[in-house]
């Protein structure tokens, strides 16, 4: 029902940035190689995400908007995981209950695509033909138009856009093989070509994290016993006043983790200085069997099977790198 969806929306959709996060994750799940994001008025008026991924079959389109409809759970043991995944198959339903949402998609098998439109109503959405190349466009308009109490919690356009950009940054740093574009009020903010060579990676990090970070950081790339840590480590001279620049990815997924932060803090402890936090963009790759993801669907937690080994590898690698550049 609409009420149930709106309750779910209370957990999934806090602000425009949470909508963007869900739409970007769906686009990546669909195998997109190019993702274009257009937002207006901090995302409260419009968030449109267009991808060139696998698309949605005509008959699946209305289903994609109903609760617990997910195409991503296939086997019985996945079903057991629903309890912990919690929000599986709820994002689009939740978003559609608090906005005007349309979904246009083409799986690439026909020349034409199909579209469904819902406006925060219970009505079964109708499917109409619509021109669309292979892939999907999700258009969300007028967030919280039917829930004025929630609308009042929205901050200024600038603040909401900052949150959106943070979500965009976090996800664009996770997938270098995919090109991204972000525009706000018809102005292009980020244009990030796809490609996983070093020059494109450096350009993307510089674009997203600022050229000051790129200039005042050192590249790291160390492999040991099946673990690889690579990325950029901010030098002690680099400081960022507003917010921490700390991105840590495990197998391409941004995480916050006690083992990781402890190792980083320890490695930096010799050079830590008042009020400043180390800046870094780091990628840890390891055998997926050695890490449980999805401990929590929104908090981006992981659990390492070999915590000690991961901790010591991170600590030693970072400490050595930092010791090299310590003034
Ligand atoms: P979940 O991602 O947890 O499955 P969502 O509510 O986010 O749930 O999406 C519901 C379903 O809609 C997905 O399982 C998928 O089948 C389909 N879907 C949503 N967005 C896209 C997209 N950009 N491309 C292809 N399929 C999509
Ligand atoms: Mg999803």
UniProtKB/TrEMBL annotation:
Alphabetized, the UniProt keywords read: DNA damage, DNA repair, Endonuclease, Hydrolase, Nuclease
Give this protein's Gene Ontology molecular function annotations. Answer: ATP binding; ATP hydrolysis activity; ATP-dependent DNA damage sensor activity; endonuclease activity; mismatched DNA binding
For the keyword ATP-binding, the answer is: no
Task: State the Gene Ontology BP annotations.
Answer: mismatch repair
List each copy of the DNA mismatch repair protein S5 domain by range.
Answer: 205-323
Superkingdom of source: Bacteria
- Nuclease recorded as keyword: yes
Instruction: State any GO CC term.
Output: mismatch repair complex
Q: What does this protein do?
A: This protein is involved in the repair of mismatches in DNA. It is required for dam-dependent methyl-directed DNA mismatch repair. May act as a 'molecular matchmaker', a protein that promotes the formation of a stable complex between two or more DNA-binding proteins in an ATP-dependent manner without itself being part of a final effector complex.
**Family from the record:** Belongs to the DNA mismatch repair MutL/HexB family.
Q: What is this protein called?
A: DNA mismatch repair protein MutL
What range of the full-length protein does this chain span?
Answer: 9 to 335 of 615
